[in-house]
Amino acid sequence: MLSSKKTKYAVVLMIFLIGIIYAKSAFFDFVSFDDSLYVYGNFRIKNYNLENALWFFTNFEWGHYFPLTMLSYGLQTLFWGINAPPMHTLNLLLHLLNCWLVYQFLVKLNLKPFTILFVTALFGLHPIQIESVVWIGTRGGILSTMFSLLALNSYTKYTDSKKNRSLVSSLVWFLFALLSKSSALIIPL
Question: pTM of the entire structure?
Fold first, then answer.
């Protein structure tokens, strides 16, 4: 049986290996399906400013309401322009962070070390994750997952400590998850 310290090292190594597996995606180009609508063909992203940033909070983008996702595209274009590799790199870094957050959540559930390692690996390597990591237009899924995991981690902290600050932070993270992708609506369930 692995100690908690050994489990942590094993998860760090596993996340590093997941990063190596997905590293090639950092050099991919844009996909012509949604990436043109959300990023390289989007007037508000190409000309990103405060007015355009605020516009995302008051309007739907092709039937979707995900202002934080659109803000993430806009902020990236301020630093790196309309450039696919930095956007793919950010998707990969967010996915690796999500793997760590899954690990943190499972530890808070007091699961056995093998279960923690297995579930974290399954989350990080499952083929369903490929789309979110390598396709820029689906960043909302990665952001929503990150904020949802932060909400769950905060909520488990609240259930242990009963501190209102943890409950409020859980609700704030949940709101951020909703503003990244509407599918986060199921998190309270």
Answer: 0.92
